[in-house]
Specification:
One of its GO terms (biological process) is sulfur compound metabolic process. The protein has 374 residues and is mainly beta. The protein is 9% helix and 32% strand. It folds into 2 domains: 230 residues, Sulfite Oxidase, Chain A, domain 2 (Alpha-Beta Complex); 119 residues, Sandwich (Immunoglobulin-like), CATH 2.60.40. It contains 6 helices and 21 strands. The strands form 5 sheets. A 5-stranded mixed sheet has the order 5-4-13-8-9. Strands 6, 7, 10, 11 and 12 form a 5-stranded antiparallel sheet that branches. The protein binds ligand MTE and molybdenum atom.
Length: 374
């Protein structure tokens, strides 16, 4: 059994599959803490978790100036420790809402396939400069990352981002060995993972052991045949993965974490307290969160909890809260949230128009139906 050496996991995580292990934390807990505790961070594995012996581990770079292999000791001792607080979100977060429109292929994620942590390690830019490689002048089109987890045919999990994007993010990409001040947990990439803040989860390669430049994208299944968007009429008979752009920076999203779908509020309640998260890709900060207690007819502004980051380097999520009046005399109502990022990007009001066969990028207004006993 290739899954016989899996790590121990919190019994509070809600699995969507066991082998490989995939799970999200209970959504009610998600907005309680700005930094998601490591054992509550959602897990998205495509393959068995590799067992890494730290004494034999190396990070192998393939560069025009040579092919250095760095030990874990070198990485932690020879470079300054840099940190970035970033939310990581699976492209399939909130997929279960898309499934209600039409079936899709993918794990049936709720709204908690996203978490937020402080990642620390070596700056990718500083690492490359040590070997006289400058991201700004490298002649290639993509930077490729590979993990130690492998498919039955021996090919590793891999991902890439365009070099142009790596240049934009230059000082913010981190080869992380710590998560919230602790060594990376096995499920999250021990001993190393790349953190490319503002970019989709699929590119945050865990168990990272290879970095190289290439004239083409990573050839991995997950770069070429997955994690892409399509129009709502594309189906498995006419889909052409080669013609669609790989997902990198993600669109603006939000969700109500509390109350939850179907919840019964206090008898005769006149107000409801909503809590949740909002986040946008590309480091675009959240400038406003709108909430409604009547299905989107009237709106209120939620109170944002500042994430301490600047508008164009806002990689962490923004948690928010709102106390809003409930419609009078109704025994049930629909709570809604939508967020606005610093580029004034907004979320689509419904999921039908953004439906796609893999169920990615499900960022419509988030709706939660509650009961209000009179
Ligand atoms: N890296 C490796 N090596 N193998 C994987 O299966 N899954 C990716 C990414 N990095 C994956 C990986 C996907 S799709 C996501 S959403 C994130 O890791 C999930 O990160 P997490 O499990 O730390 O939440
Ligand atoms: Mo993912």
């Amino acid at each position: 059994d290739p899954y016989k050496d899996e790590p121990e996991r919190s019994p509070l995580l809600i699995p969507s599959s066991q082998k490989p292990f995939n799970a999200e934390p209970p959504v009610q807990m998600l907005a309680d803490q700005f930094l998601t505790p490591n054992d509550m961070f959602y897990v998205r594995n495509h393959l068995p978790v590799p067992c890494v012996c730290i004494d034999n581990f190396t990070l192998d770079l393939k560069l025009s100036t040579g092919s250095p292999s760095l030990t874990f000791q070198q990485l932690t001792k020879d470079f300054p420790k840099r940190s970035v607080t970033a939310a990581i979100q699976c492209a399939g977060n909130r997929r279960s809402e898309m499934v209600k429109v039409k079936p899709v292929k993918g794990l049936n994620w709720g709204s908690a396939a996203i978490s937020n942590a402080k990642f620390s390690g070596v700056s990718l830019n500083e690492l490359l400069l040590r070997y006289n490689v400058d991201i700004d002048t490298v002649r290639a089109k993509y930077i490729v990352f590979e993990g130690l987890d492998t498919q039955p045919d021996g090919s590793p999990y891999g991902a890439s981002i365009p070099l142009e994007l790596a240049r934009l993010l230059k000082n913010d990409i981190i080869v992380a060995y710590e998560m919230n001040g602790q060594p990376l947990p096995r499920d999250h990439g021990y001993p190393l993972r790349i953190i490319i803040p503002g970019v989709v989860g699929a590119r945050q390669v865990k168990w990272l052991n290879k970095i190289y430049f290439s004239p083409e994208e990573s050839t991995s299944h997950w770069q070429r045949r997955d994690y892409k968007g399509f129009n709502a009429s594309t189906d498995w008979h006419n889909v052409d993965f080669d013609k669609s752009v790989s997902i990198s920076q993600l669109p603006v999203i939000s969700a109500i974490c509390d109350p939850v779908e179907g919840q019964e509020l206090e008898e005769g309640a006149e107000e409801v307290t909503l809590k949740g998260y909002a986040w946008s890709g590309g480091g675009r900060g959240i400038i406003r969160v709108d909430v409604s207690a009547d299905g989107g007819k009237t709106w209120h502004e939620a109170t944002l909890k500042p994430n301490g980051q600047t508008p164009y380097h806002s990689y962490a999520w923004t948690l928010w809260e709102a106390d809003i009046p409930l419609p009078k005399g109704e025994t049930k109502t629909e709570l809604v949230v939508k967020a606005v990022d610093v580029s004034y990007n907004v979320q689509p009001d419904s999921v039908a128009g953004i439906w796609n066969l893999r169920g990615c990028l499900s960022n419509a207004w988030h709706r939660v139906n509650v009961k209000v006993p009179l």
